[in-house]
């Protein structure tokens, strides 16, 4: 039985294919022999040639190529947003292994779909740091993508002034006992930038705009699956934390929520809008160290959602209980006070969580880009280290202090009009 299995396996290999092709060649050479020039023999040889050629071409390869086993998708079409004078695209590429062999991701390029020119590219550790396997405890994609696994690659690219019509993606990969492969797909046409810029959500400052695309548990990388669909509501979310001139975020006992410099600050409507959703009554802890974890339903704490005239929704979360001044269905004017900054919900300290979405419920929508009409850029923190305890780094000399129609960059320190 083993010998028969070996023979059957051999017939699927390249030697058997070469033998078939050799027979076809032998049959073809018979056409020139005098004995084979009779019409009946010619017709028979032609039929045999066709049969042997079809069998040779249909023979399976010795090792299946993994190219067709990798699925590429971009579930949420991006739109450009301005950051410090540059247009940026933020979006996610989902990679799913539909094959039977583990695939190691070796390279990723974002291409102009028409010219094929590369707009951005990542390889090795730089690519692995941007990728996460859904549901895996290990945050970094350090091992091959196993059969059935899905990885999300978080992308941020500069959008050139001469913007391409469309983008596509090239993924290079390798598998054991197979030649390296590559696949191109997930073509997309970016959406137009939002036409309506927003007013300030808070007064004065300094405020540090806390967000960073590389943080494993930051808003940018946390999906929520509700109502049968996974979404990324915090794609462009910012946590605004008030600082003093020395970069400190609290006075006196920093463990007391009320000691935070931003606690109780008025929260403002960023546009003329309709109140789409309101929740109040979620209590706060007096001390930050005693604040419990909250389930998903209560994670946003007390919040207000405003529906803009262009169909976007603006969400303000973690508001102080009892401070909300609006109700659902009410019309508000830009600059109107709608509540106060607080410490309700799942929060590590008093701050205003702010994002724009395509749905009124905090975790049920996709985060979409937005820009503020104006703010003053003071500087930035290079990371979380020292934030709220030490002075920030000053603004780069080549950057103008007054910013217009932009989204605040990662961990920038800004000041709004009073």
From TrEMBL:
Residues 262-359 form the M23ase beta-sheet core domain. Pfam families: Peptidase_M23. Transmembrane segments: none annotated. One of its GO terms (molecular function) is metalloendopeptidase activity. SUPFAM superfamilies: Duplicated hybrid motif. This is M23ase beta-sheet core domain-containing protein. It comes from Lysobacter sp. RH2180-5. The lineage of its organism: Bacteria, Pseudomonadati, Pseudomonadota, Gammaproteobacteria, Lysobacterales.
């Amino acid at each position: 039985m083993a010998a028969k299995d070996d023979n059957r396996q051999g017939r699927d290999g390249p030697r058997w294919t070469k033998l078939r092709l050799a027979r076809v060649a032998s049959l073809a050479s018979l056409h020139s022999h005098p004995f084979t020039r009779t019409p009946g023999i010619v017709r028979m040889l032609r039929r045999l040639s066709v049969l042997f050629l079809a069998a040779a071409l249909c023979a399976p390869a010795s090792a299946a190529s993994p190219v067709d086993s990798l699925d590429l998708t971009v579930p949420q079409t991006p739109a450009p947003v301005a950051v410090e004078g540059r247009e940026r695209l933020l979006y996610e590429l989902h990679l799913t292994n539909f094959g039977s062999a583990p695939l190691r991701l070796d390279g990723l390029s974002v291409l102009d779909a028409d010219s094929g020119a590369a707009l951005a590219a990542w390889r090795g550790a730089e690519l692995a740091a941007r990728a996460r396997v859904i549901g895996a405890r290990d945050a970094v994609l350090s091992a091959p993508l196993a059969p059935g696994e899905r990885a999300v690659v978080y992308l941020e690219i500069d959008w050139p002034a001469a913007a391409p019509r469309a983008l596509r993606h090239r993924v290079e990969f390798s598998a054991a006992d197979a030649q390296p492969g590559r696949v191109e797909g997930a073509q997309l046409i970016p959406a137009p930038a939002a036409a309506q810029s927003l007013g300030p959500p808070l007064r004065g400052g300094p405020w540090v705009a806390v967000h960073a695309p590389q943080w494993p548990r930051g808003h940018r990388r946390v999906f929520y699956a509700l109502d049968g669909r996974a979404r990324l509501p915090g794609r462009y979310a910012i946590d605004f934390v008030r600082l003093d001139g020395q970069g400190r975020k609290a006075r006196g006992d920093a463990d007391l929520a009320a000691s935070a410099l931003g606690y109780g600050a008025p929260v403002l409507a960023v546009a003329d809008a309709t109140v789409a959703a309101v929740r109040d009554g979620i209590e706060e802890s007096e001390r930050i160290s005693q604040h419990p974890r909250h389930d998903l339903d209560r994670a946003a704490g007390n919040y207000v959602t405003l529906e803009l005239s262009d169909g976007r929704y603006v969400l303000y979360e973690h508001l102080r209980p009892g401070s909300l001044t609006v109700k659902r269905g009410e019309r508000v004017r830009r600059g109107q006070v709608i509540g106060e900054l607080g410490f309700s919900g799942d929060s590590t300290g008093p701050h205003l969580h702010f994002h724009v979405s395509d749905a009124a419920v905090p975790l049920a929508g996709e985060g979409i880009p937005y820009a503020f009409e104006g703010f003053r850029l003071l500087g930035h923190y290079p990371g979380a280290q020292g934030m709220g305890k030490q002075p920030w780094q000053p603004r780069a000399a080549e950057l103008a202090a007054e910013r217009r129609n932009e989204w605040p960059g990662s961990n920038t320190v800004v000041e709004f009009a009073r």
